[in-house]
Write a structure and sequence with these properties.
With about 280 residues, the protein is of the alpha/beta class. It has ten helices and nine strands. The structure holds the ligand O=P(O)(O)O[C@@H]1C[C@H](O)[C@@H](CO)O1 and hypoxanthine (HPA).
Length: about 280
């Protein structure tokens, strides 16, 4: 109510700007900006690179509200507080939420500077029982047991890929799975390897709880990760490559031996090499 009384903007789109991406909010025209400290009941941002402002304005003809800085679990906020702005957006009349973040790549094809369109997520804190929807369900927002099988809107993902092609940057953009961890420490080598094997493409410390709350209250969600680093050490990438190559060689030798035997000859590749 306080925000609606302070601005004439009625946003359809909300954007949560991840680490280092806050400058997007500066592009809004006819801005009304509010420091989190001035908004009654709003949590406070403590992370460097997160300005701590809610900025309303026009972006390419759409009325938007941007969070210049988000809240993370590792700052000591409850998950309820980290996701509180998503419910504020819903109450402001927002229909589409765009989430952005900085993330580490676990996928061979994703390098620093690339953009990953989030096609799905693994919410590790959520799997462990740290869920922003814990506690009594508020039916005004959504159901007790919301489905999470299609969190990231397929139409918006397709549109984003098309736009990347039109802009000539398609080689920097690909879809992938984002995993949220609690942070603030980065992953151990074993943790990074585990997530890589589980099919995670990029890892970060935010986003998934916000998306859970957004999907619960019926917002359409689009998410992107800016890849900032590559936690998997070179050695483990090399070892994976070496193992894959060894498997190929074993298959090739087996195939060659099968054809030699088929031709009636009594030798094999291993006897040839040993002799
Ligand atoms: O708000 P995001 O998810 O962009 O912030 C990322 C994750 C950590 O907060 C921090 C670590 O680099 O950046
Ligand atoms: O490598 C990472 N791990 C977790 N969170 C991150 N945020 C940016 N990079 C990373």
């Amino acid at each position: 109510d306080w925000l609606l009384s302070q601005t004439k903007h009625r946003p359809q789109v909300a954007i949560i700007c991840g680490s280092g991406l806050g400058m997007l909010a500066d592009a809004l025209k006819c801005q009304d900006a509010f420091h989190y400290t001035d908004i009654p009941g709003f949590p406070q941002s403590t992370v460097q690179g997160h300005a701590g402002r809610l900025v309303f304005g026009e972006l390419k003809g759409k009325t938007c509200v941007c969070m210049q800085g988000r809240f993370h679990m590792y700052e000591g906020h409850s998950l309820c507080k980290t996701t509180f702005p998503v419910r504020v957006f819903k109450l402001l009349g927002v229909e589409t939420l765009i989430v952005t973040n900085a993330a580490g790549s676990l996928a061979d094809g994703l390098k620093p500077g690339d953009i990953m369109i989030i096609k799905d997520h693994v919410n590790f804190p959520g799997l462990g029982g740290f869920n922003p929807l814990n506690g009594p369900n508020d039916d005004k927002f959504g159901p007790r047991f919301p489905a999470m099988s299609a969190c990231y809107n397929p139409g918006l993902r397709c549109l984003a890929m098309d736009i990347a092609k039109q802009q000539g940057v398609a080689e920097l953009v690909q879809e992938g799975v984002y995993a949220a961890v609690g942070g603030p420490n980065f992953e151990t080598i074993a943790e990074a390897k585990l997530m890589h094997r589980l099919g995670v493409d990029a890892v970060g410390m935010s986003t998934a709880p916000e998306v859970v709350v957004a999907v619960h209250c019926g917002l359409r969600v689009f998410g992107i990760s800016l890849i900032t680093n590559k936690p998997r050490p070179f050695l483990s990438v090399f070892l994976d490559f070496y193992r894959a190559l060894s498997r190929e060689v074993v298959t090739m030798v087996t195939d060659i031996n099968a054809s030699i035997q088929g031709s009636g000859c009594s030798c094999s590749v291993s006897s040839l090499t040993s002799s």
